[in-house]
Amino acid sequence: xxxxxxxxxxxxxxxxxxxxxxxxxxxxxxxxxxxxxxxxxxxxxxxxxxxxxxxxxxxxxxxxxxxxxxxxxxxxxxxxxxxxxxxxxxxxxxxxxxxxxxxxxxxxxxxxxxxxxxxxxxxxxxxxxxxxxxxxxxxxxxxxxxxxxxxxxxxxxxxxxxxxxxxxxxxxxxxxxxxxxxxxxxxxxxxxxxxxxxxxxxxxxxxxxxxxxxxxxxxxxxxxxxxxxxxxxxxxxxxxxxxxxxxxxxxxxxxxxxxxx
Length: 261
Description:
Layout: H1 2-5, E1 21-28, E2 32-33, H2 37-47, E3 52-55, E4 62-63, E5 68-75, H3 76-106, E6 113-115, H4 125-134, E7 148-150, H5 152-158, H6 161-170, E8 177-181, H7 184-190, E9 197-201, H8 205-215, E10 220-224, H9 232-236, E11 242-244, H10 247-250, E12 257-260
Parallel strand pairs: 6-11, 7-8, 8-9, 9-10, 10-11
Antiparallel strand pairs: 1-5, 1-12, 2-4, 3-5
Helix pairs in contact: 2-3, 3-4
């Protein structure tokens, strides 16, 4: 709301003399998984605490194009001031939920879960990760303190993957440890060490299968890198337990909503 109202408020709406009470409908312009209704409500409440916001759906539900997702009652100026912010919340969260659901549906019947990453819009991570959950996905770590994730650059700088993993085990302090590998030789070097998860990064389905066999159920398995809606089922068919997808947050198309008076 500060983005829209600083420094001088809504100078266009200020021109309206008749601040009468109105009824406005929020309508979805496309099929989607709805998300962000409570955020939209709070956007209207910010401008006018007396606004009444009635949802006609619930976050996480599939809705069709043309669906009236909410009705807003209140004074015209408050509704106009908050209109765009409310719709922006719905567009963003529903967009993430909708694309996540597409990936989740694509791996239906397989024994793996779709996870998000930290490839999120700055300062909007919590909203995007909420959208992922609405779409049936799993949240990966929220920040760098959540778990130890040893990636390719850590390995390249340190130079010794086995010693780095040993150091992680010694200093884990109750945190889970994931080790990202991009070839099977790296996996062989760390086999037998007590960590939680192997992350196969940008590896072929053939090598992922080999890696899963080598892991011998000692570690949870995950795949990442270049995952698309076209290849995700093929990756899931390897038997990997988790697939992390950056696209569901960093490239989620916004869902189009409109407010009609």
